[in-house]
Amino acid sequence: MKLIDFDEKFNRKIAEMIEKHAGEHSEDEWEDVIAQAYRKFGDTYLAAIGKTPRQYFAEMGDEQLVETLKEYLLQGISVPDLLCEEIEGRGVFPALLSLLHDTDEELVHYALNLIGPDRRALDRYCEMLSEEEYDEHIKDMLADLLKERADDVLERVLPLAGTDNAPYALEILSKTTKRDDRAYRALADAFAQSDDEEKPLYAGYLASFGDDRALPALLAEIEREDIGFVLFQELKFAIEALGGEYEKERDFSSDPAYKKIMAAGGGSDIFGMAHKK
Prior knowledge:
This protein is mostly helical. Helices cover 58% and strands 0% of the residues. Helix 9 (136-147) runs parallel beside helix 11 and helix 13 (199-209) packs parallel to helix 15 (229-241).
């Protein structure tokens, strides 16, 4: 398929504009000027194709749009925003959903951005989260999308809490509002079984989930004599988020993380705690 490099055409014109009007705009102003110019470019008649760039993509069928997206990526040509805008404007359609069965990271990345948290994609998103073909970058995106539909995918995500994909599953479960006991147990168990490096994350998940049954475990953990400053702060936040309190004074003057924060904060840490002499 022969492709038109619309971005190259636009960039060439913008380069000429910037050279001609150098010094007339600030960097922020240039961003606005370029954005406006791109919108105008989309509706500008191009003799080479006999229509405007926007019309060029609007006349394509759904499957042709998806195939064109694939070709831009395959041939290493910049994907025009106008193509993505046309796809987004049509909503979620079968040819677009079919991209979720591809394994090319860049193509799947585009598909996830274009589809978003649409209900029709949720089953496939959950499947992808459990498949080895997708790396952490894609799974991070999947988790972010599924968090927006956490209640809808609860049953499909729960089984993943006991697999290698547990970190993604637990992040999603922490955003559910159904207060399902199985979700709480998965989050509580993950916190109990985690090491000090992981505990701040899982404490945050318990805080996000919002079940005050987690308070005894959090309060017991924060009382540890060997607790580090970062974990202490995350536990304190989680306890307060769940309606609890922890007011005991603790000395972290010998904690490396605390020292770094103090040095950066000029005598008080990011939480407003003054350095103890």
